[in-house]
Amino acid sequence: MPISLKQLRYAAAVARTGHFGRAAAECSVSQPALSQQIMTLEALCGSALFDRLRTGAILTPFGRDFVDLAQKAIAAADAVNALATGRSGQLDRPLRFGLIPTVAPYLLPEIFPALQSQLPDLDFTVSENRTEALLAGLVDGSLDIALIATEPPEHGPRLVSAPLFEDRFVLATGRNEATPAPVSLASIAPERILLLDEGHCFRDQTIAACNLASDTSPRTFAATSLSTIVEFVANGQGVTLLPQIALRKEATDPRIIIHPLAADAGRLLRLVWREATPFAPTFARIAEVIRATRQPNAS
Fold first, then answer.
1. N or C: which end of the chain has fewer CB within 10 A?
2. What is the structure's pLDDT at 248?
3. What is the pTM of this model?
4. Mean pLDDT of the chain
5. Separation between Cα atoms, residue 180 and residue 184, nearest integer Å
6. For the structural domain made of 95-165+267-297, what CATH number should be given?
7. Residue 264 in contact with residue 144, Cβ under 8 Å?
8. What fold does the segment set 169-266 form as a domain?
9. Which SS3 state, helix, strand or coil, does residue 288 take?
10. Average pLDDT over residues 131-151
C-alpha cells in the first residue's frame, strides 16, 4: 500500500499541534480516524513517528526526519494543485487564515465583515495559534495566510510580508494604583509585570519593552490569555501591558485603569504568505481591506 498525501497531512498536523485531538479538529476528521491513519502510516514505515504522552504527542527521531520530507511533499503537491487550478488567481476552496491569539479575538470582529463584503467570492476557514505554529502551517501548506506580529524568519521558504498597521501598547493597572501618566516602564517593579506564558510573541515584546531580564523562570505566574491577566490586574495582583486593539474588549472592567506610556512601545501587525503562490493578488487585496478597515480607528 503506497503512502497517501492525506496521511502525510495528518502526520504534519500532529507534529505541528503536538496533539492527536487538535490535529483531528484542524483536519476536520474524527480523532479515531486520524489515529488509525497515523497507525497505518507507522506500519508502512516500520517505525513509530510519535511518542504518545498523556499530554499529547512528540516526534520520534525517525518521525522528525519523516515529517521534514513529508512537509516538502505536501508543499510540492499544493504547488502543483495551485498551478493547475489557480491560473485565474482565485482560490477554488476556502482560504485558510491563521491569526495569533493576541490578535484574533480583537481584530476578527472588525475585519471579517469587511472581508466578506468586499471579497464575496472568497470563503474563509479561520484558526488561532502561536506564531511558530502559524509559520509552520505556511511551510507545510495547511495555511494560506497568517496574521503575525513579528518579522517572518529568513530561513525556509520565502515569505511575503505585507505591513498592516502599528498596534501601540498601553499599561493596565488596578483602579487603586497611584500611577502618574504618562507611565515610564522603568518605574515599574519588574516582579509586578504579569506576562503571558512562553511561546507568545506578545510575551517577548513585553519583556523587551519593559527591559526585563531574559531569564523569567523564577516567575510563578504565566497566563494563557490576556483576559486571564486582566482579571489578575483588576484584583490588584499586578500590572500588564495591553495592545491597543485589545482595549475594546479587555478594558471594560471598571476596576481597570488604562495609562499611556511615556515612551512608544508597540508592534507592527503583518499579513504573510508564501512567495511561491499564484494567489498573491488575492492575498494582497486582503491586506488592503484590513488596512482600510482599521484606518478610521487608528490611534
1. N
2. 93
3. 0.74
4. 89
5. 9
6. 3.40.190.10
7. no
8. D-Maltodextrin-Binding Protein; domain 2 (3.40.190)
9. helix
10. 90
Measured CA to CA, the distance from residue 135 to residue 142 in angstroms comes to 10
* Angle, in degrees to the nearest 10, between helices 20-27 and 5-17: 130
pLDDT at 219 over 80: no
For the chain, domain boundaries: 5-85, 95-165+267-297, 169-266
The CA–CA distances, whole Å, from 195 to 58, 69, 79, 165, 204 equal 26, 36, 40, 23, 9
Which grid cell sits at 150? 513579528
Report domain 5-85's class: mainly alpha
In tens, the pLDDT along 161-212 reads: 999 999 999 999 999 887 888 999 988 889 899 999 888 899 999 999 988 8
CA-to-CA distance for 114 and 111, rounded, in angstroms? 5
Q: Judging by DSSP bridges, how do beta strands 145-148 and 124-128 pair with one another? A: unpaired
Nearest Cα residue to 146 out of 123, 129, 168, 158: 129
Say which amino acid occupies 239: V
* Fold match flag (95-165+267-297 vs 169-266): yes
Say which residue the cell 498523556 belongs to.
Answer: 54
Q: Which DSSP string do the residues of 98-144 spell out, in sequence order?
A: EE-TTTHHHHHHHHHHHHHHH-TT--EEEEE--HHHHHHHHHHTS-S
Prior bond to 182 cis, omega within 30? yes
Compute the distance between CA of residue 148 and CA of residue 132 in angstroms, rounded to an integer: 10
CA distance 27 to 29: 6
> Residue 266: what pLDDT?
94
117: which 3 cell numbers? 463584503
Decide if pLDDT at 7 tops 90: yes
Q: How far apart are CA 255 and CA 233, in angstroms?
A: 9
**pLDDT value of residue 28:** 83
